[in-house]
Amino acid sequence: MASDIVRNPNALAEALAETSRVVEAQLDALLPVPEGAEARVVEAMRYAVLNGGKRMRAFLVMETAQLFTVNRTCAARVAAAVEMLHAYSLVHDDLPAMDDDDLRRGMPSCHKQFDEATAILAGDALQTRAFEVLAEEDTHADAEARCELVLALAHASGARGMVGGQMIDMASEGKKLSGPEITRLQALKTGRLIQFSAEAGAILGRASQPQRHFIAAYGRDLGGAFQIYDDVLDETASAEELGKTAGKDAAQGKATMVSVLGLEQAKAHAELLAEQAAGYLESFGERGALLQELARFTVTRKS
């Protein structure tokens, strides 16, 4: 790629940081702390969603929306909704009944900082607030676009998406799965929400079907690369680098591409998917350069 954007080695890091700033300001505004006893659950919601992270899903929303000249505030609202949905899944994943993890992004998990019951309620409320934000008129003037966002996120996050993937993941602990079975598990558990994050910008921009096809394919392969490389990092990175407990996949007998292919082949497969993802954006020219760079960053990151 010959873009000046990509020649700047700090361009992606700067864009991710700017996205974090914009989206966190939206999250702060969308989650005001009320008076009364219910304030505790909102404080837990804010703790879960405002405690850092890469904001990759938010970046996907913002950057794909920019491809279609979507109003930045509208895109930021959708990005914030995605981050709420993602945060809810992490809060619940960390619970003792699920992955039982005391650390998240280098800080105590929500149920350790508050308590299990509050964490469950905070996750529930983050999920419902995400859909509420998508349905509000400030997100898009076109009711059809809002409905499409709600439906697409529901598909990505429900029993045939993220929740279904989590169920398969839990049911498969200690079992030997094939490569295709693991690919499906990871596509549901992680990939669908990443794919939605990419497609959301195209939905907001009322993009043509061919453009949506390319964006969806990009998000699908990016999600695959991201999860496989997460498995690689779980084997190779420290808890300090990850900000969460390292080595848990092997300890819990989880099915991963690393367990099937081995470390080096799994890494090579993630890199192939990242290159495929980048290739789907060639028709967008330099406007898609940062998204292409994100695909390559996904398989070179340290956490």
From TrEMBL:
Asked if the Swiss-Prot or TrEMBL record annotates the protein with the keyword Disulfide bond, the reply is no
Under the heading InterPro entries, the entry gives: Isoprenoid_synthase_dom_sf, Polyprenyl_synt, Polyprenyl_synt_CS, Prenyl_diphosphate_synthase
Q: Which Pfam families does the UniProt entry name for this protein? A: polyprenyl_synt
Record keywords, A-Z: Isoprene biosynthesis, Magnesium, Metal-binding, Transferase
Cofactor(s), names only, from the UniProt record: Mg(2+)
Give start-end ranges for the coiled-coil region(s). Answer: none
User: What protein family does this chain belong to?
Assistant: Belongs to the FPP/GGPP synthase family.
> Which PANTHER family does the protein's record reference?
FARNESYL DIPHOSPHATE SYNTHASE (PTHR43281:SF1)
Q: What is this protein's record name?
A: Farnesyl-diphosphate synthase
